[in-house]
Write a structure and sequence with these properties.
This protein is α/β, with parallel strands linked by helices and 763 residues long. It contains 26 helices and 25 strands. The chain is globular, with a radius of gyration of 26 Å.
Length: 763
Amino acid sequence: MGPLTGVRVLELSTGIAGPMAGMLLGDYGAEVVKIEPPAGDPARALAGFAVWNRNKQSVVVDPRTDDGRRRLADLLAGADVCIYAEAAQIDEVAGNPGLVRLHMPPYTADGTPWAGGAESHGLLSAISGSASRQSSFEGGPVHIVYPFPLYVQAVWGAACAVAALVERQRSGAGQTATVGGIQGILAFNPGAFVLDPTQPPLPTNFGPGGRNPCYTTYRCQDGEWLFLGSLTPKFQANAFRALGVGDLFADQRIGGVPRRLTLPENREWVRDLLASAFVTRTRREWLDRLEREDCPAGPLRDRDEWLDHPQVVANGLRVDIDDPERGRVVMPGLCIDLSKTPGAIRAPAPLLGGHQASAGRWAPRARPASGADGPNFHRDGPDVGGGPLAGLRVLNLGSILAGPYAGSLLAGLGAEVVKVEAPTGDAFRETGFYFNRGMRGLSIDLRCAAGQAAFRRLVGTADVVMDNSRLGVSKRLRVDYATLAEVNPNVIALSISGFGEQGPLAPRPALDPIIQAMSGMMTAQGGDDDPVFCTGPINDAAAAVTSVLAICLALYHRERTGEGQRAITSLVASSVTMQAGELVRFEGRPPAPRGGRDFVGPSPADRYYRTADGWLRVQAPSLASLADALGLPRSLGDDVAAVADVLASTPLAIALERLSGAGVPAVPARQPAEAACDPAVVAAELLAERHFPDGKVHLVPHRYARFTRTEQAPIADAPGVGEHSRELLIEAGSSEAEVGALIEQGVVIQGAPFALQGLINYR
């Protein structure tokens, strides 16, 4: 049985984000009742509905009627979790003080800044600044054909709901967790909001492959594309050797400083040099050679092939299910594997009102009993604050991106997180410092027996140990689940792999863009033109939020049973979850969206337009309604050139006023720094000010979610390598003399605080 067996979820949301969060809770055992209006969820018309609404029951309720209001009140009184988008959908339920309310508004809790207020990843990406950060040829905003922010909002919302359930086991009290669209944007691409407010917006007009010539797409002799994933200096040196281009670090223009490879004055000549090498051999030859030289790379494939890929199938990430409306449906499988309480896809998406008589006949919930005296909690009292996971300790052995980012998100939920590094440190810690915020730092050599012995003492104090190592590394370092459980039987161990733990590619290293390439994301966005590398680290970010969900699910089970277990996720799993609505297949489904060169939108009524002083994103019901709102004659109602011309000569503010006044959803295409000044974003405390050593201000992500009763304290800055080594090992039971000896031997590094010198944009 899944870890949420016995949990009752009432889903009042429609569209993508809320229903997908409900799907995830249902996948892991919760009983989910989907409340639909008489006309049904409008998303029933979308192919993804078959995925986002599996494992649910459908009940039609009209809240405008007395019977509908009574039915809804009865359901709320018996639920454990309620998912909703609008505050008006749910009232405080005096008879159900243990209700966890997951509020998932389209923008922020304070409202939605476009007419109608409906969920829209296109409008959300525009107004948040995300679309303006996407690399392109011309440098304007780009419409991403995937609703990535909504998918991430869904997984992160589910994680926060389960975190609140974990906390409820101790306190007996419910609360509201808010994960709006803007939080989904932040979780999807936090690097876009690491800002120096004194600097102009970053240029993006260096092509759809991104700014880094060592971390981009290349075309080979046979016309096929691959992605070169040499992000770190080690892999860059390996790539230069494989390509036979010499030691570029020794070039006087680079001067031995790897980050100079991405400077504007070097970017083009480095890319041209590498491109001239790639066109001399076929893709297969280059992939073989790069693999021999231990340099990550991957082929660009077609999206429609991904669910059939042996790696996806071997890891159980494809499921076939009979659907009463659609027939045989092929869809993405579960994104998390739990060793003792696995999830399951038990039922297809329901027929509208298919469970009208039977679903949700729940007895009212009494206040849950407090688990404060249980063996696995360290906090005192029910309302201490500091986040729903306060008092829990996580040892985070992750490096580069997904693992560290998951640790930072857990710190944001209140957990005490320790970043565990080798003495050489995480190679990505300066570039990706914001993925390491909120943690204390331990630097220890786990290759030697003395380091392993000292680490085992720390494991005895931990609730969770997580890693994102290559297959086999955790066992070699004796940090695998079997070894950890010998030290701490109640421990939860989470592993994030690249290609999963089964299948022919399992031993290989994987990076987000390699999975973007292989899963078809890049070719789908590029359409018939060059492939597009998504600037947001979508698979890494999704793996991080999925890891938090996995840990919270395992914690909830442990708090009810005392039993630890192992949890597994991967970047491959993220790639199917983040394309759930696009990969699902059944007879008669319409083609999934595809993009194109500097893609501005799927239709003339739903796209970006230039104005006299900026860019505008519109989502009108039709081109005629857009033309009418702009005052064009009816004869020009289907003339997209006329609409474009009038907008090009109209100031942005005036265009917005006209369109909003006519009820046409429209927003400005802002830069991230502009979005940071939005009063609603400021009120959500999305970002916080930090200072460089010289006192200069920069902005960093701050609150990825809000909780009404267990709000988390401000997240600490990233630690230095081994900054807290001595105190952590002494806390775990080592003596000062023992720790001193380990430091003297070089097994443990006691380092200084991390001093951020500047912001590095690697994408």
